[in-house]
Amino acid sequence: MQSIDGHLNGGIPNVDVESLKDYWQTFTKLKDKLFRPLREGFYALAVDREVIRGTIYGDTEFSAYADKVEAAFEAWKSAVDKKLRSIAASTKHKDLIAEMAEMRRSKRNTCYLYQKCVCKKIQNSYGKTA
Fold first, then answer.
1. Strand partners of residue 43
2. How far apart are the C-alpha atoms of 126 and 66, rounded to whole Å?
């Protein structure tokens, strides 16, 4: 939903920034690096637009998390590689997808945001179309 007040008077609505609460819980200092209070109900960017990406990638919590996600993905990839390479015409794709999703789900606490934002969407889309 658009904020007319934000368009007319400038600022990013607090509700928009706060809707990213899962990120702020994981990257505890990043919100304050990126945003500053502007006026009642609105934030402003605390950095120039040109350095937003660098600010995020330079955050130590973000970098550590990215390494954690990479390690979790590599472990999962290693675990499913043999199964994927042995797919045959007789492979039951629904069962294979469910098994691989369960393997990923078993590492739920490893990468909270990855699990919440990516895996759920993938699992839901396969569940609806498979």
1. 12, 37
2. 25
What is the chain written as a DSSP string? ---HHHHHH--EEHHHHHTTHHHHHHSTTHHHHHEEEEETTEEEESS-GGGHHHHHHH-HHHHHHHHHHHHHHHHHHHHHHHHHHT--TT--HHHHHHHHHHHHHTTGGG-HHHIIIIIHHHHHHHHHH-
Quick one: angle between helices 93-105 and 60-85, nearest 10? 150
Name the region of 76 (left: φ>0; alpha: ψ -120 to 50; beta: rest): alpha
Q: Give the integer Cα–Cα distance in Å for 3 and 108.
A: 36
pTM of the model: 0.64
Domain boundaries, the chain: 4-56, 60-129
* Residue 31 contacts residue 24 (beta carbons within 8 Å): yes
- Reported as a single tens digit per residue, the pLDDT across 37-95 is 999 989 999 999 999 999 999 999 999 988 888 888 888 788 888 888 888 888 888 88
In the structure encoding, which two tokens stand for residue 33, read together? 């690096």
Which residue type sits at 16?
A: D
